[in-house]
# Entry
Amino acid sequence: MKLDLLDFKELESFPSGSGIEFFNGKIYLIGDDATDILVTNKRWKKQNEIKLSGNPEKNSFEKPKADLEAVAMLELEKENYLMVMYSGAKEPQKKGILVDVKNDVINEFDYSIFYDRLKSSGISDLNIEGAVQVHEFLIFCNRVNKTNPVNQLIITEPDFFRRPAEAKIDLLDVDLSAYDGTIAISGLTYSYENDQLLFTTSMEDGLKEDANGIAAKSYLGIVENGYRKIWRHKMKVNELIDLPATHKEFKGRKVESVCIQSEKTRSIKLHMIGDNDKGESFLYKVRLRF
# Structure
């Protein structure tokens, strides 16, 4: 596979970019320390900001804390929502966010019961970094750290927050044993055209328990036949693309998330967001050819 860099930009005044999603011509950006969702067009020109602090007159939301990490588009009953989740690595973060993309109205949902179930299912330390809907499944990624020796995919249902005590939970290990070093998954997306699960990763030195070490290298990972592999006990990775080896703009930066703008057979156009140890954010547009 070959990756071509189509565009690159430092995203000023948006701290610690951690998540990116695309829907209906718009790009939605979240940041680890950002208090709003930034909405841009395909060329990264600002279109809107969705205030996560809510409407002060209604007093419906508290100012969000840091650690916004996972973002995904959900299709529920033929309606589309942007879901934003905290990693769960810090307390007290018990609320998720749903944005109705028709009108940018936001609602919170409580996921404390669901996260407690995850902890009792075999995940010693929660650190959810990515999310994606794949057909009838919603997939979270729990990032490797000192107490979690492997990256794990959490397989559940898109409406898990409506019945957090009953929604299915299955765990699927991501097999990166063929590669050296501790490689931590940071974001997920899925190609319906090619049945590929794509993910961003970073290799880190001195991993802390919340996996926020210093980035040494970032990768783009590809899993072929991604939908069919959901039923297996372990998910094999077909390829890791060394991003700094493809273009110098990736060097010294940690790629945190990826989304698909468009796709066709043997070609996918992607957007990525990354940051560095100074909290600065960077955007990448790439084409993956295979």
